[in-house]
Amino acid sequence: MNATSQTPTRPTNGRPVAGIPPQTQGLYRELMRSAYAELRERAEAGEEKVRRWLDRFLTLGEQLGVAVAELSGDRPAPVAESAALIEAALATRRIPSAAYRLQFNAAFTFRDARDLVPYLHALGVTDCYASPVLLARAGSSHGYDVCDHGRLNPDLGAEADFDAFAAALREHGMGLILDAVPGERPCLPLCAVLRHRLAPRQPGPRQQGAPAPPGRPVRQCA
Q1: Cβ–Cβ < 8 Å for 131, 84
Q2: Is the dihedral of CA 97, 100, 101, 106 positive or negative?
Q3: Which segments in the chain show pLDDT lower than 70?
Q4: How many CB atoms lie within 10 A of CB 32?
Q5: C-alpha span between 28 and 58 (Å, rounded)
Q6: Angle in degrees, 0-180, between the axes of helices 110-123 and 159-171, rounded to the nearest 10
Q7: Alpha-carbon span 29 to 70, nearest angstrom
Q8: How open is the CA angle 140-126-173, to the nearest 5 degrees?
Q9: In this structure, what is the dihedral angle of CA atoms 184, 185, 187, 188, given to the nearest 10 degrees?
Q10: CATH tag, 99-185
Q11: How confident is the model over 66-123, as pLDDT tens digits?
């Protein structure tokens, strides 16, 4: 593309500039609304002098703190952008109509869930709502005591087992709802302190022979 056919680069949204009188910005906006469309057509038609002048004019608007991109119509206003994003999200969202909850633990693993998918599909279940499958405390029967949101719980199976479960759901046109337990991780240090504070005291001199109460094993998450 040669220089005579290029259109001026459009600056992004302007920003407030200290010391610029509002009257100056208002005058620029009036010039933008009244002359920009015609000048842009002439620049696109190949008038090089007009193209260079318009490029400097748009740059001046950015320096004045004017949102020239919105005034020139090069991109939709933020409200319109937000509306478009919301509309796209609503168009692609999945609304479960019949969910079945699966409680994962060492006694019910990803492989068990995979084998159960055809039966649930035959019942009319559209989505499986899974209990937390992320790394939890050792021996957890529910999975809500998550200690690492970046890894799957090995007590439930390997990553390949989870992938096979997800593939079975896709094959049957079913969805998966995961409970990520986002509020648990920040509480872990507090829980550790509480476990220490509430734990039974060490036996005194007269109780040296008494056995210490068994503690619940805690999985160390690197």
Answers
A1: no
A2: negative
A3: 1-19, 67-82, 85, 89, 183-222
A4: 18
A5: 10
A6: 10
A7: 11
A8: 105
A9: 120
A10: 3.30.750.90
A11: 766 655 555 444 555 667 767 776 777 778 999 999 999 999 999 999 999 999 999 9
